[in-house]
Amino acid sequence: MTIDTSSILVSIIGPELVLVIAALGLMVTDAFAKNKTDQRLLLWIGLAGILGSVAVAWSLWGTEPVYGFGGMVVADNFSTFFTMLFLVAGGLTLLMSENYVDTQGLAPGEYFALTLFATSGMVLMARSTDLIMLFLGLEVLSVSLYVLAGYMRHSDRSAEGALKYFLLGAFSTGFLLYGIALAYGVAGTTRLAEIGNLVAQKHMLKEPMLLAAMGLLLIGIGFKIAMVPFHMWAPDVYEGAPSPITAYMSVGVKAAAFAALLRVFSGSLAELHDHWREIFWIGSVLTMTIGNVAALLQNNIKRMLAYSSIAHAGYILIGVVAGGQMGTAAVLYYLLVYTLMTVGAFAVVIAIEKQDEQHLDIRDYAGIGSRHVSLGVAMAIFMFSLASIPPLSGFMGKFYIFSAAVKEGYIGLTLIGIFNSLISVYYYLRVTVLMFMKEPEGEPIAVRIQPALAAVLIIAVIFTIQMGLFPATYLQFAANSIKIFL
Amino acid sequence: MVFSQLISTIIFLPILGAIIIAICSREKPTLLRGIAFIVTLATFCISIGLFSGFVVGDGGFQFIEEAPWIPSLGITYKVGIDGISLFLVLLSTLLSVIAVAASWTDIKTRVKEFLICLLLLESGMIGVFVALDLFLFYVFWEVMLIPMYLLIGIWGNPARRIYAAIKFFIYTMFGSLLMLVAILVVYFYHGSQTGSYTFDLLSWYNLNLPLSMQIWLFLAFGIAFAIKVPMFPFHTWLPDAHTEAPTVGSVLLAAVLLKMGTYGFLRFNLPLFPEASVLFVPLLAGLALVGIIYGALVAMVQADVKRLVAFSSVSHLGFVVLGIFALNIEGMTGGLLQMLNHGFSTGALFLIVGMIYERRHTRMIADFGGLSSVMPIFATFFLIVALSSIGLPGLNGFVGEFLVLLGAFQAEPLWAVVAGLGVILAAVYMLWMYQRVMFGTVAKEENRHLKDLTLREAAILLVMVFFIIQFGVYPKPYLDRMQPSIKTVLQRVQERTAHLDADAGALGLMNQVLFVKRSAVVTVPHPPAALTQGRQRP
Asked: Could you tell me the CA-to-CA distances from B401 to A201, B424, B464 in Å, in that order?
């Protein structure tokens, strides 16, 4: 096998390169940082990396897909959409972390660097057109997050969560690798497009090895999106991890896994959709229902948001099941709105959280809405948006998903989704009830919001409202990003 | 004068007011109240322009405004009014002024947030009545939920306000989500039939949906509206929400929010699903009658005045639904008129209960007695309002109830008999309550020194009583504007169902549905199999 160097096209992975260079710069700066003021610099380096990456990624937004590294990596609108999503999530995570590492006494250098590494892994995942590259991206992402999840070394819960995440994650990666191996065994290639062509030409529907490969890939990816029954890790990991990382995992990792899922299933294995649609149909119903019902019972806000994020993965799966132009665009749009409202909700959690993971009980939120009105209103907006009340963006997202499902005739699935939204209303309302309608039992909690965190809150509030009231641009953006599947 | 954007002005003026109040300092509650009062008053004055500019005799939509919103999905910002929505809009704007005035001394905590909620609620209410795009309608319908939920949950009665607020929210949400699915189904059906994917209600009116689809869609829309009305057996959220809400919340809930359910039946269920509507007449009329009697009986045994008024709403709204589903011009006009009457009568009753609660901090009938000698002005207003609620000739309730009974009798004499029983029961519970509260000797020491109405309170009630009498004595200006629109709706229903076997009525239609193969109805878009069969029969 000869390697054609002209086909490498390094500029394709520009966004990843910028992120990695920034991360390395962060680590070097951290090594030489003497005092607190030097550490302030770290945040700016991280943000500069994100912004640089945004600029590079945006320059790749075009009409025709460009392939690099012998066709293993692609720059198309689909990947650019997801790259933007990861960078927004990553940037907001950095901003939220600034305050958090301070109050929790964490070392910021590696923390920020690992966040950037994780982001580069996500970007690579969304760009890969080859199963090996997909695996590579997933591992870069996962290894960084295994460390970040256990970053609060002195907390038992953080250690427990990290170990659980690592063991189960490694296990699921094994499944993914087996799936890739079997797919290679059948098709003789790991390129997604070639596998897709082969499946389309040879009518390999009866090929047991291919179906086994599909199943194993599904488990591997299903683990990362926390699809029931592969969700067991999520609540513990989300509860134990530092709060900004929890937010990042529940939006970034999920979106990256959905990007991979769309590439593999809606793209490459589209011919097999009769087989995987039913699996995702069941997965979607279970994921929504179990996520929502479990969220009803939580008193820890991070656990509640963890289960709610599981439920939201279920709604997004409805879009995957429905498929087609509308369903796929709905998945992308939903991920976008979900990212902003969830990050916003976590920003409020971080504002209220104190050292040693205090004030994570939902009952600690009593009366905050009347004493810190802006914070309360922001949280109410995120909660109502998550509960899909118009005109907030969460409603538009669900509306689009349900429209796609009704269009494709999945009325039953839509009704199940609707009843699930109704269940979810209760636990989201509970937060607003406590914040606005109850008085605190003990000493009122003092809340101090640093500028970086305030910026996150403002951005999240503005976009949660704006994407709901004027969704046309974003819907167009999503629709332009999925042309490769049509 | 931006005459062409009259409706948008009245929708967005309260939102603007809310933003102004949000900016102002919370240290000056009187200033905030003043701003809210001026904004609501200005909104009401502008909305009078709708009344004066309304072309009498035109049954279609007027003042239509249209602007693209989400073009890729065919969603537009389209608003307009006809004779049905005109008065409901006016009712909303008027009662918002009343609400601000009535809350002047009642609400003392978090005045700023309270007024913001109130103004947002007003925008939502107006929006629901003027939206001519189903998506827009749904957005307003849901938007309204949040301020009302907060009104009940924050400023309600401390004991059970949270329970009531959540119950109200989840109940309503359940219905509206079903409606959302139904809206989407019609949207895609319309798109597949005509090729244009739009949420425009006026385009949807030209749609001939197959009967088998209509039945499901009617139920999905119907449950959403029945919960809002509320019709028996979906009424259980209402007594809690009403009792626990602050006075103003109860007033707006009773006077405006409940009307959205009955308005929905008139605006969406009848014209969009005419055959199904005819099919479901026995069910809906039956439930309405149960509601009339049941509401009245339960109201009779209440010890709490506010709860009594709440249950009387169940009974009164039963009349409205009965009138609408009598499916003749008298019944439907009566139903619509009764919607407004109920807004004034019950709104005023809740105001009265609120005024007395502010003085005595109790609403139990047993705690009162003999108030008429202590508070003569109050007693006069109370009596007029109570009599209007009963339906005394010369007051508003009579005109509406009479027309409803007339329509019901034409449709099915038995209905009128049962509903007539409801009128008698209304007299029983209302007068009995009035007697126990107002007449007799002053038994309790605390009641001996109650202050009579202040000027502000008297002015509020005077406005309500003015309309109560005006509707009762001279309803013509209202009826003239309502009837053409109602005729349009009725004609649409009759044209679509004319080919059904007239003699067989609902029962015949039911048979046709049962004996038509399900699959045939589903797959053949139009003309639907069930209807062609009906046509061949004679």
From this structure: 72, 12, 19
- Residue A468 to residues A210, A333, A392, A462, A477: CA-CA distances in angstroms? 41, 11, 4, 10, 15
The letter for the amino acid at A288 is: M
Cα–Cα distance measured from residue B231 to residue B226, given in angstroms and rounded to the nearest whole number: 5
HSE-CB for B68 with a 13 A CA cutoff: 8
Inter-chain CB proximity A437 and B143 less than 8 Å: no
> Contact, B135 vs B148, CB < 8 A?
no
Do residues B452 and B505 both lie within one domain?
no
Q: How far is B70 from chain A (nearest CA, A)?
A: 5
Between helix A301-322 and helix A411-432 the angle, nearest 10°, is 160
Instruction: Write the pLDDT tens digit of every residue in B368-423.
Output: 888 888 888 999 999 999 999 988 888 888 888 999 999 999 888 899 999 999 99
Tens digits of residue pLDDT in A13-34: 888 999 999 999 999 988 887 7
- Of the candidates A331, A147, A158, which has an alpha carbon nearest to the alpha carbon of residue A243? A158
CB contact under 8 Å between B169 and A433, yes or no, is no
Please give the residue range of the domain that contains residue B390: 273-497
- Max distance between CA atoms of chain B, in angstroms, equals 77
H helices, E strands: number in chain B: 25, 2
Burial of A154-174, coded b for 16+ CB within 10 Å and e otherwise, reads ebebbebbbbbbbebbeebbe
pTM of the model: 0.91
Judgement on whether residues B342 and B480 belong to the same structural domain of the protein: yes
Which alpha helices (H) appear in A60-191, and where do they start and end? 77-104, 108-127, 131-149, 156-187
Cβ within 8 Å of residue B197, ≥6 positions away:
B73, B74, B187, B188, B190, B191
Q: Terminal CA-to-CA distance of chain A, rounded, Å?
A: 33
CA distance A26 to B454: 71
Q: Which two tokens stand for residue A180?
A: 């890739």
pLDDT tens digits, one per residue of A149-161:
988 888 888 888 8
**If phi over 0 gives left and psi between -120 and 50 gives alpha, with beta otherwise, what is residue A249?**
alpha
Sequence-distant (6+) residues with CB within 8 A of A148 are: A111, A114, A115, A118, A241, A242, A245
Does A426 lie at the interface with B, CB-CB under 8 angstroms?
Answer: yes
Chain A positions in Cβ-Cβ contact with residue B170 (cut-off 8 Å): 422, 425-426, 429
Q: Measure CB to CB from residue A370 to each of B110, B142, B170 and give the nearest one.
A: B110
Among B434, B342, B341, B338, smallest CA distance to B380 is for B434
Residues B521 and B387 in one domain: no
Hey, what are A359's tokens? Answer: 């004030």
AA letter at B365: I
Domain limits for position A224: 5-485
How large is the ipTM?
A: 0.91
Our count of domains for chain B comes to: 2
Phi-psi region of A191 (alpha: psi -120 to 50; beta: other; left: phi over 0): beta
